[in-house]
Design goal:
The chain has about 240 residues and is an alpha+beta fold. The chain has three helices and twelve strands.
């Protein structure tokens, strides 16, 4: 084979290889983009406004939309962040398990806890369209209503088994399951709430919250957040 033929063969091989690389990249471009630009979900629990704070709770008359009753409450929210390079789509926070600490120090699963989505703050939805990079969203963990006014809000916020005069922590699950027979109301005690945070285009994150409810109500916000309840993230996965 002549030198000219060798050069032609090398050029043709290079062209064929380049064509193959371009075809490969075109075929897998979405997957490659996903590997490089995927969303990355993370969470924080801040003990300050607007994540956790005292706020009014209302009862609104359905027909007129007028406020017919007002009392104080404390709301507790989880800050969900996206540290990736792509917007996280269709994000939800799913409560997978609730456990209560026993006298011997072990934790026992509460079998009738409703394993469902928590509700996003302000939008009152269980799934939000997305979370952009550096623009976190708040998801409601739960709230505490002034004990003396809890019964006014009905079975969604009060239950005959709950202690009178003490605080009750109401986990903010979907309203459809806030009914008798489902345990979203927590009496004073120590709990672990396991959550799964997921999106349509991101790997899920598993976290465990520790919730300590002491049963005491304080009108002063600083006292309530230091002596009435404790909460922290104890595990991320």
């Amino acid at each position: 084979m002549t030198e000219k033929e060798w050069i032609g063969l090398i050029i043709n091989a290079a062209i064929a290889f380049g064509t193959l690389v371009v075809a490969f990249a075109a075929f897998f471009q979405d997957k490659i983009r996903g590997w490089l630009l995927h969303p990355k979900l993370d969470v924080e629990l801040n003990w300050t406004l607007p994540d956790c704070h005292k706020t009014p709770s209302y009862i609104i008359e359905k027909e007129t939309r007028n406020i017919i009753f007002t009392t104080d409450s404390y709301y507790f929210r989880l800050r969900v962040k996206n540290g990736g390079k792509q917007r996280a789509e269709l994000v939800e926070v799913y409560a997978t398990e609730l456990l209560r600490k026993q006298a011997d120090g072990t934790y026992e699963r509460i079998p009738d806890f409703p394993c469902v989505d928590l509700v996003w703050s302000t939008v009152d939805k269980t799934i939000i369209d997305g979370i952009s990079r550096e623009l976190p969203k708040l998801c409601n963990i739960g709230h505490i209503i002034r004990p003396s006014d809890r019964s006014v809000f009905g079975p969604a916020e009060d239950d005959p088994g709950m202690p009178s005069g003490q605080t009750v922590f109401s986990i903010d699950v979907d309203r459809a399951v806030k009914k008798p027979g489902f345990t979203h109301l927590l009496a004073p005690g120590e709990y672990r709430l396991k959550l799964l945070i997921g999106a349509a285009n991101a790997n899920p994150r598993r976290i465990t919250l520790e919730i300590n409810l002491y049963g005491k109500w304080f009108d002063d916000e600083n006292e309530m957040l230091s002596q009435g309840i404790g909460m922290k993230i104890i595990e991320k996965g």
